[in-house]
Specification:
By secondary structure, the protein is mainly alpha-helical. The chain has one domain. Helices cover 53% and strands 0% of the residues. The chain has three helices and no strands. The termini are far apart. The mean pLDDT is 78.
Length: 108
Amino acid sequence: MATVVLVIHLMIAAALVAIILLQRSEGGALGIGGGGGGGGFMTGRGTANLLTRITAGLAAAFFCTSILLTILARQSADPISVLDQAEPAPQQEQTQDSLPSLPPLSPN
């Protein structure tokens, strides 16, 4: 299930990038669809409205698939805690032999 949603998510992302690049840019920067000059591939107000609606629909679908992927990933993972995985440190018994020896005190 998650693989199918992931493939759909990637196709939506690619389509979203393509549609955004087709739109006319305001400043003539990155828009492929005719940022400046005369006639272009897609011109006119009707096309701009269509591309804006398609972009909004793809953006909504992108967010929905993102949320769905998050829910699917959360359900399939077992809840684990770092504290549950930690192994207790071995206890060392301190005896008189294991304590560091101090040099004898010298009289002043």
